[in-house]
Every structure is written in structure tokens, then in C-alpha cells.
């Protein structure tokens, strides 16, 4: 990165432009660009190598701001985006938090908040690796907020793009709880021609059966006791857009028949209504259940099953894409550090190995919940093995760990790609294949500490005793490495033999 970063500030009002220009003058006196319209924003980004973008989302219509944010992130993946949103826009805030946006601030601007955002961005740029060797790992941008660099996820993203080109066909999303089925449904909507219309989610398992019908189809005045006026249902509200039916397997058979009519005839009748209303709604359904089993048991209509399964889409569980765990973890650490105004946690290698070895039955949601829990409970800078919940360590067996595979995942490169004799932050350290112990009782912490000591000694040997370079190899702060060397009494051990 150049010594002075280039900042682009977008805002339609001159007084706010002046306010931020004064704040930025010290950090980037000659490299601040101002734009006041979407067209000027895109033109500047295409002509100037911008490092930091302050993006006022009120530049765009409310229903389009997220799609524009996604487009900018996809087109300029290296750009640090600081999104500015009105402070009363809770829904928009949640959308921002679900993405990989670097930081967000609220409008009206607060000087302390803007300065904090700028400081974090400048710090990020200062430590951003510039190594372009074959070992450097280029992060792929999130796909509409969904993070995944594994082949199975990239194939999923390609399939979503193809599905989105057809705005009519129904889609059935299969996946375990916590895999992100609603995020996939939103991605289908945002990538389609329906993106400027409503995306309407309905959790069929969360709404009681006696209320779900009126919630979906609406009702007319006098349809039942308490129906004092007409009410529009979710299906009609999604007209022109997308209706997302989560946990479709929990819908009772009588409602399944009414939904089938919506899919077949493109019309519906509200509760108490006598006239069918035409509707242009794309239905995307999702389930973690075995629908085929429910069909065989007679609790799910076979004709509805085939109507929903025009385009089946399967989301893999997290345990089947472990290579994505480090980047998901990094994104969640960034997100919750930013949200709580604290420093990002450091994850030592032994903790990372434990996380990679866990089965993650709750999938991506469980991983994010863990990061959120740690962000609330722990005030330190580095998460230790003993800080992890017991369930994560209950089945962790160091003897059964494939350390060569773990090394490949953590480093982000193939072991065979390492450039010999070259020391850089991406140099791969060969890990011991197994941890050995004698028969009898095993001290788990002692084994992990011994393994950690071996890694430190190996890193110090590779770097010729250069603690700064060794810390880079181990992804540790230099002070943390010095503390570990002192605590473990390792001084000089890398010079032996």
C-alpha cells in the first residue's frame, strides 16, 4: 500500500462533505475525493485506486441500497467500505452486520465515530499483507453476504446465479439447521429481476397452525371473530417479489392444498373471501427435514413436493467444508469486534486446530454464536484453549488429528507450493504428524503445550532465531511469542542440534 491512503467520501450534502474533509485532512491531505451522487461514485471508483470508501447509503433509494452495496463489494473486493446509515434504520443495520462490510457508522455523523472508523481502516491497511508470491491467499468476496471459498460453495454460488436468471421457477433449499438457508434465499432474490420488490420470509414452524393460514393468505372483514378489517397476507405482500417459506415440512396438509393452488394457478383466496386474487409471487421453500420420508408417511402432499422441487438446492454442512472455517471465523471476529468497539481476538494455532476438529452440528450459526459469546465474556486479546466451551473439547483427540491436513487448511496453501528457503508470512511450517505418549493417563493440556512448544522451536529454526519473523509465521504478535518463549523456558532451544 502507498504511504498515504486514498479516501473517497460520498454524501449528497455540502456541509457533511466539509465536515469529513476537515477530519480527513491530516490522514490523507492530498488523496481525499468527494462525490455526491451514485454516478459520480461509480465513476470515481472505476478511475481511481481507492483504499477507503465512506459510503452514505442514503445516496440510493431505500429498496436499492443493499443491492448497490453488494455490487460495490463484489466489483472492488479489496476496498475497505465504511457504510453510513440513518441511526433509526434497525433493519438496514442488520443487513449491514450480515455482510462483510468493514465498518459502519450512523447518520447524523459523530466526530468520534468517524475518527474511530478511519483509525481502524488505516490500521487495517498498515498491516495488510502485500506479499504476492504463490503462497499469498487472495480472499474471495462474499456472495451476497454468504462466505465460502471452497469448491462446493463456489459451485453453490454459480447455481444460485443460474437459478436467479429464471424468476418464475420454485426453488427448494435443503440443508441442516444453521447452514444459512434464508441467506441463500435472499441471494436468489437479490440476484434476480425481482430484487426491487419485497422479499417476504415466513417461518412455518414458528407460527401456530391456526394463525398461519390468515398470516399467509390474509383475511376479509368479518371472516372470523376479531376480523374487524381486511388484512393483506404475506403472499399478496410478496406480489412481484419472493415469498420464502422456511421449514415448509411443518405446514399442515390443509394449508399445503391452498399453497399448491398458488403455485399452479397463480391465484389465492383470503380467509373469508369469495373471489380469487391473481398474484405473481416466486416461492422459495426450505427445510431441514426429509421431505421424501414425510411424503411416504402421508404428512406431506406428493404433488406439492414435486411442485416445490422444480429446482432443488443443497447447502453443505460446515463439517463438509472445514476449509471455510478460518475465513468464517475471521469475518465473525471482525464483525463482533466492530459491533462492540473492541480489539479483534487473536486465535492461537492450538485453538484453531480444536475448532477445525469440532463437528459443528449447529453449523455456521453455532460458529458465529461462539464468537459472539467470546466477545461478550472475555476481555483478553487472545483466546486460550481453556476458554472454549466444554462441548468443543469433549471429543477433541490430539492423537487423531491429521496435522498435515490442518496445516494446509490454516495456511491456506498446498504444502507442495511452499517456496524453499523463502521466509515470509505465508511460509508453511511442517507440523509433526502425530503426538506420541505412553500408555496410561494423558494430560491433555500438557500435550497441547508440548505441541505448541514444538511449533515455536520449528518457527525459530526456520527464521534463524528472528523472533519478529517467527511471530509472523505463527500469526502471533511478537510480544505474545516472547511471552510464550519465556513461559515455556524455550530460549536457545532452537539452536540445539
How does this structure look, described?
The protein is α/β, with parallel strands linked by helices. Helices cover 42% and strands 11% of the residues. It has 3 domains: 7-127, Rossmann fold (3-Layer(aba) Sandwich); 151-314, 3-Layer(aba) Sandwich (Rossmann fold), CATH 3.40.50; 321-495, Helicase, Ruva Protein, domain 3, CATH 1.10.8.60. It contains 20 helices and 12 strands. The strands form 3 sheets. The protein has a 5-stranded parallel beta sheet, with helices on both faces. Strands 7-8-11-6-12 form a 5-stranded parallel beta sheet. A two-stranded antiparallel ribbon has the order 9-10. Helix 10 packs across helix 12 (302-308), helix 18 packs across helix 19 and helix 19 crosses helix 20 (478-487).
In percent, how helical is the residue content? 40-55%
Strand elements, count:
12
Which stretches are low in confidence, meaning pLDDT under 50 for 5 or more residues running? Answer: 129-137, 413-439
Query: Which structural category do the helix and sheet elements fall into?
Result: alpha/beta
Note the total helix count.
Answer: 20
Radius of gyration: 26 Å
Largest sheet: 5 strands, parallel
Beta content comes to: 5-15%
Quaternary state reads single chain
Looking at the overall shape, the CATH architecture of the largest domain is: Orthogonal Bundle
Shape: globular
CATH topology of the largest domain: Helicase, Ruva Protein, domain 3
Provide the number of structural domains.
Answer: 3
Span between termini? 41 Å
In the CATH hierarchy, what is the class of the largest domain?
Mainly Alpha
- Kindly state the mean pLDDT as a whole number? 81
**Spatial sequence of strands, sheet with the most strands:** 2-1-3-4-5
Amino acid at each position: 500500500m502507498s504511504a498515504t491512503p486514498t479516501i473517497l467520501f460520498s454524501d449528497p450534502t455540502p456541509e457533511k462533505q466539509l465536515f469529513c474533509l476537515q477530519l480527513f485532512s491530516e490522514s490523507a491531505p492530498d488523496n481525499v475525493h468527494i462525490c455526491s451522487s451514485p454516478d459520480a461514485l461509480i465513476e470515481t471508483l472505476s478511475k481511481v485506486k481507492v483504499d477507503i470508501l465512506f459510503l452514505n447509503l442514503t445516496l440510493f433509494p431505500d429498496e436499492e441500497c443493499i443491492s448497490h452495496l453488494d455490487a460495490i463489494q463484489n466489483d472492488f473486493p479489496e476496498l475497505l467500505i465504511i457504510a453510513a446509515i440513518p441511526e433509526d434504520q434497525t433493519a438496514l443495520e442488520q443487513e449491514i452486520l450480515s455482510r462483510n462490510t468493514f465498518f459502519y457508522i450512523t447518520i447524523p455523523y459523530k466526530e468520534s465515530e468517524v475518527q474511530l472508523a478511519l483509525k481502524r481502516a488505516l490500521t487495517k491497511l498498515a498491516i495488510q499483507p502485500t506479499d504476492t508470491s504463490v503462497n499469498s491467499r487472495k480472499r474471495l468476496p462474499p456472495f451476497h453476504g454468504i462466505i465460502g471459498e471452497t469448491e462446493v460453495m463456489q459451485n453453490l454460488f454459480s447455481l444460485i446465479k443460474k437459478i436467479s436468471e429464471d424468476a418464475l421457477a420454485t426453488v427448494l433449499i435443503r440443508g441442516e439447521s444453521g447452514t444459512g438457508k434464508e441467506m441463500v434465499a435472499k441471494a436468489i432474490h437479490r440476484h434476480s429481476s425481482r430484487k426491487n420488490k419485497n422479499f417476504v420470509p415466513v417461518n412455518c414452524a414458528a407460527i401456530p397452525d391456526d394463525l398461519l393460514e390468515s398470516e399467509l393468505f390474509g383475511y376479509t372483514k368479518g371472516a372470523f371473530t376479531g376480523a374487524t378489517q381486511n388484512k393483506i397476507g404475506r403472499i399478496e405482500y410478496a406480489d412481484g417479489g419472493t415469498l420464502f417459506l422456511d421449514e415448509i415440512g411443518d405446514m399442515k396438509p390443509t394449508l399445503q392444498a391452498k399453497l399448491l393452488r398458488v403455485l399452479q394457478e397463480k391465484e389465492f383466496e383470503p380467509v373469508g373471501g369469495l373471489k380469487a386474487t391473481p398474484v405473481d409471487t416466486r416461492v422459495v421453500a426450505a427445510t431441514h427435514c426429509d421431505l421424501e420420508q414425510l411424503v411416504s408417511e402421508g404428512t406431506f402432499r406428493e404433488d406439492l413436493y414435486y411442485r416445490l422441487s422444480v429446482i432443488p438446492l443443497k447447502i453443505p454442512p460446515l463439517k463438509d467444508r472445514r476449509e471455510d472455517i478460518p475465513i468464517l471465523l475471521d469475518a465473525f471476529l471482525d464483525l463482533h469486534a466492530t459491533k462492540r468497539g473492541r480489539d479483534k481476538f487473536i486465535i492461537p494455532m492450538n485453538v484453531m486446530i480444536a475448532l477445525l476438529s469440532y463437528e459443528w452440528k449447529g453449523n455456521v450459526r453455532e460458529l458465529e454464536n461462539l464468537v459472539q459469546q467470546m466477545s461478550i465474556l472475555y476481555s483478553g486479546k487472545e483466546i486460550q484453549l481453556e476458554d472454549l466451551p466444554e462441548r468443543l473439547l469433549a471429543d477433541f483427540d490430539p492423537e487423531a488429528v491429521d496435522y498435515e491436513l490442518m496445516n494446509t487448511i490454516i495456511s491456506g496453501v498446498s504444502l507442495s507450493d511452499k517456496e524453499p528457503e523463502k521466509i515470509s508470512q505465508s511460509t508453511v511450517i511442517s507440523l509433526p504428524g502425530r503426538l506420541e505418549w505412553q500408555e496410561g493417563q494423558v494430560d491433555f493440556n500438557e500435550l497441547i503445550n508440548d505441541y505448541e512448544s514444538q511449533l515455536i522451536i520449528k518457527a525459530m529454526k526456520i527464521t534463524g532465531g528472528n523472533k519478529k519473523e517467527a511471530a509472523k509465521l505463527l500469526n502471533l504478535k511478537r510480544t505474545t511469542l516472547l511471552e510464550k518463549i519465556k513461559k515455556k523456558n524455550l530460549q536457545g532451544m532452537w539452536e540445539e542440534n
